[in-house]
Amino acid sequence: MESGQISDYGFLADGRSAALVDASGSVNWWCPGRFDAPSVFGRLLDDGAGHWSIRPEADFTVERSYLKDTLVLRTVFRTAQGEVALTDALAFEPGSRGHDIGMHPPQVLVRSVQGLSGAVPMRVHYRPRFEYGRTIAYLVEREDMLEAIAGAARLTFRSSVRLACGDDGDAAATFTVRAGTTHNFSLGYAPTYDAPLPEVPDADQTIADTVAGWRSWADEHAYQGLYAEEVRRSGLVVQGMTYRPSGAVVASVTTSLPEKLGGDRNYDYRYVWVRDFSHTLRALWRSACFDEVRRQFAWLGRAMGRIGDQPVPIMYGVLGERDLTEHRLEQLGGYRDSPPVVTGNDAWRQRQNDIYGAAMDAAWLMRDQLEPFDPDVYHLLRVLADQAEQDWKQPDAGMWEERGVQHHHVSSKVECWVALDRAVRFGDQLGGPQDLARWTAARDEVRAAILERGWSDRLQSYTGVFDSEDLDASVLVMPLVGFLRADDPRMLSTIRAVERGLSHDGLLRRWNGDPAGFVICSFWLVSCLALAGERDRAHELFRDLAGRVNDLGLFAEQIDQRTGEQLGNFPQAFSHIGLINAAGVLTDVEQDSTLRECGMPPAHFTPTRR
């Protein structure tokens, strides 16, 4: 594995925050407290922004894996002198199990070095840098610990190896690991004020307890469909990207990892998109259980609050914050010299009309748990239906969040149709006769407009924007939400045109000019092929895509069509959600004859709890 690539990283999580560890044993990203908090290790985005490395001094090769059914990472270093295993974990609260994991984590990063053979000289280098590398803390030795305080953050470092403090706010040591010996390291975080010292528990016990916590969660979520191993891993990743106190799933745990090296489309994805909501719920439904699904919908209702006449916000912070104003971090050079580095995401200001369908489709999926409606849910769903009726004729920024322009995006119109269709399906539980008549009329009007203005005779395909000649992978959602059957002649032609025009080696770009294949779009193609009756091709493509994860089973947002290099923020929930849902569709199609015969989309098929 080439050092420095996005796919070089492993992912740790504790229900509040995440850390990324590269293949050489360096923690290069950790934002303790919550996913979108300032980093204390940020070398991912700039060499000077902090890291914590533990590695052999001599040349080595690496083999990595997660301990079974966990996000606890084991890295084995092989050197000429012997072998060493490094185990890394973000700790859960002691004794937490099942759905309680991650609710109150101690915010401790633990690392354990175990000698497997020989005698291996090792080096540890601890270099904290606070608030995205802006602040260098004084390191203070206090009995058996090393304390770093700067601004609002405090770190407490304990080690079985004594580190020598340098003059530039770092500490280092060399030590030798012999077969059968163990050296432990723990780093605790706490706010500087109004909080006790960070807890730094015993590393061995903490790792064992965290492993047990992850496995207890996995044992409660027994998916038994096709591609169970891949779904199980992706389910763990999505769980790791869940902010447990609220139940919100962030799009990614990083900011500003580029879609193209040297490009400027660098965004902060440590937030929650309503667009992802329906896809996320469907993935949780298939790979997890109803508890996560209920918490997700409860979070959405609280985040949206009472909706007025303004467009519904399209994204939120993990606790439902709306103002996510973007800021540039000029002190950071960017991943592999690809600035800008930003926090916040100005897409929160955009109109994106597809969110009405995303939320309503999630409610329809969850109808057995939501009915009878609580008053706040009843109000939310009615307003979503009314706004879809009112706004579907409006241009918007679209699924791909174009900045500075608005168009009549076909996928946005389709999702408005979804919102109205599901409202009509809810019937008198959601509205009276006049409401249902209004929604039905608007639904039929939207559908007619899409069929007329979204189709290109020249391309023999539905296009990304009304009255355009440009292919766009977003139209592949049409059969997945029940707008058209996958075997409809025009839809089949669209699938062929999109694959022919945007796909290379199984990777599907979003549009012509998109720098790389977008992973979830490629999985949408898998689902469309399966529902269109091309099951062998769908399985072949799924296996090819699933094989493009890194050595730990992790996806970024995009994959370069020529080199296979992963690009964009990492790991990416949308990519793993795409895998889970595609595996679910393949399972449905193989197990249910009506799906095989009529191309019935999973949006109208309630999967059996397995």
UniProtKB/TrEMBL annotation:
<protein>
    <submittedName>
        <fullName>Glycoside hydrolase family 15 protein</fullName>
    </submittedName>
</protein>
<dbReference type="InterPro" id="IPR045582">
    <property type="entry name" value="Trehalase-like_N"/>
</dbReference>
<dbReference type="Pfam" id="PF19291">
    <property type="entry name" value="TREH_N"/>
</dbReference>
<dbReference type="Pfam" id="PF00723">
    <property type="entry name" value="Glyco_hydro_15"/>
</dbReference>
<dbReference type="InterPro" id="IPR012341">
    <property type="entry name" value="6hp_glycosidase-like_sf"/>
</dbReference>
<feature type="domain" description="Trehalase-like N-terminal">
    <location>
        <begin position="5"/>
        <end position="159"/>
    </location>
</feature>
<dbReference type="InterPro" id="IPR008928">
    <property type="entry name" value="6-hairpin_glycosidase_sf"/>
</dbReference>
<dbReference type="InterPro" id="IPR011613">
    <property type="entry name" value="GH15-like"/>
</dbReference>
<keyword id="KW-0378">Hydrolase</keyword>
<dbReference type="GO" id="GO:0016787">
    <property type="term" value="F:hydrolase activity"/>
</dbReference>
<feature type="domain" description="GH15-like">
    <location>
        <begin position="237"/>
        <end position="583"/>
    </location>
</feature>
